[in-house]
Amino acid sequence: xxxxxxxxxxxxxxxxxxxxxxxxxxxxxxxxxxxxxxxxxxxxxxxxxxxxxxxxxxxxxxxxxxxxxxxxxxxxxxxxxxxxxxxxxxxxxxxxxxxxxxxxxxxxxxxxxxxxxxxxxxxxxxxxxxxxxxxxxxxxxxxxxxxxxxxxxxxxxxxxxxxxxxxxxxxxxxxxxxxxxxxxxxxxxxxxxxxxxxxxxxxxxxxxxxxxxxxxxxxxxxxxxxxxxxxxxxxxxxxxxxxxxxxxxxxxxxxxxxxxxxxxxxxxxxxxxxxxxxxxxxxxxxxxxxxxxxxxxxxxxxxxxxxxxxxxxxxxxxxxxxxxxxxxxxxxxxxxxxxxxxxxxxxxxxxxxxxxxxxxxxxxxxxxxxxxxxxxxxxxxxxxxxxxxxxxxxxxxxxxxxxxxxxxxxxxxxxxxxxxxxxxxxxxxxxxxxxxxxxxxxxxxxxxxxxxxxxxxxxxxxxxxxxxxxxxxxxxxxxxxxxxxxxxxxxxxxxxxxxxxxxxxxxxxxxxxxxxxxxxxxxxxxxxxxxxxxxxxxxxxxxxxxxxxxxxxxxxxxxxxxxxxxxxxxxxxxxxxxxxxxxxxxxxxxxxxxxxxxxxxxxxxxxxxxxxxxxxxxxxxxxxxxxxxxxxxxxxxxxxxxxxx
Length: 645
Fold this sequence. Notes:
transmembrane helix; MetI-like fold; globular; 75% helix
């Protein structure tokens, strides 16, 4: 019931009123459609401006030499623009992070979904969410100050900055993403599967490993792909710990070799390059390659998740296939894994794989109860390791950062390049950036969610809009920064300013607001809408007076999560909004600002003898972001426990 019908027996005045209401409904629906299409237009503009600025680079360098060239040295007498070492570095760091993150994440997801008592679950889930909430620059700071030193001492190397350090750090950062999605997939497996398995005499571990996990395999695969997308698109943390040497490790499995990633190259060089130069266009070519890789990875995960329940289980196919085909198909994953491990780890990697195979064969001979005890031990060990990592990060930052916290530190401007003084302009600048980004993104996000959930049935238009939202959500933060730089700073001539940073951050958090708002609207019972419409309310009256008030808790939670993400991001504001040191607060939105993430990055990488203020800045930033996320978690749990329809 979108409009009020006009019948001949109504008075002329009443007919005009009804016509006005109908026109109002159409205008409002059109407004929400524009909000929904905004994400699609944003993706189109990002692609358009990236390709525009990379086109000359592709033409002058050549696409094939650009992709396969083995040397990246734009400042040499004869510049070289081959990004093969950057692609290899990105893949090595990403694959290494998955080796670390996947077992821990899936084990943690299994434990939370299948084994954890309710009280323990209330501890572990917020801990995982806090891991997700720690800003990437804080991870990078911890990696630079602690992890690289551990690796340097452990392996007796001149420096611990290497692709091993990058893999360890990215593994920790990807862990919350994989865990959350995998847990949802495991939890969605029907309870009847578990009950049926236990009823025929299977142990709990046999039920988990041979029934539940295989049934959730598509969702777990999507979780791993999303984790890979998170790792590929990370900028600040990788840039701070990988050594940033644009070479392919020799041998390739030398995990202590420094590498450089695609994102790291953009973060390091974009701020120093002359606009319009070949180097400038080549960097945008790097951004195009990065964007295409991440979009393909994230879209693959989205498609898997969407078809999770529609796909025919692989086990049914294998069951109906001939015995020889079944055996051959079972060997394919082993062959693929062997080739990958040999390419990365050489004969040592294959040897380790063989040892793992022997252990697996031994495990097959164990009794079910013994196998269950061993499996549960490792699951508990993995969860304990995840909590230990969180504890180490927080302990290191809190213990070293507390001595720096004082009234002067929080209320004065920096002095001596940040070695002395405080961070007040950075705190205020961060709040300005966050407030502006939310004011920009919230109307578009809520409007898009209203249109998708309340006005439009599933069809080609909604599929296009949802695809645009998925693409926007999968875009690396550094690409948002480049788009903000080329479109807002240069094309619209806004300049490096608070406004450019606010708009860029707003575009970045827009998908989060849309998704959380849409989920909140979906949770409102249809009976409330039907009752309102039955009483004669229009569609917009129903939405504005019934649906939105009922969904306000979820909308607030999504907004707070977006605030937390915007407050902790560095890459989007790297080229659009920030300066390192500023004694006075900005007087207008066209002035540049200081920001806590950028201030911490510069202190960590460019200002020696500033250890105490580094830790103090990191502590303030992490307290700000974790505090915001904690409020969101509290509100979510509060309304889940109190809201009843």
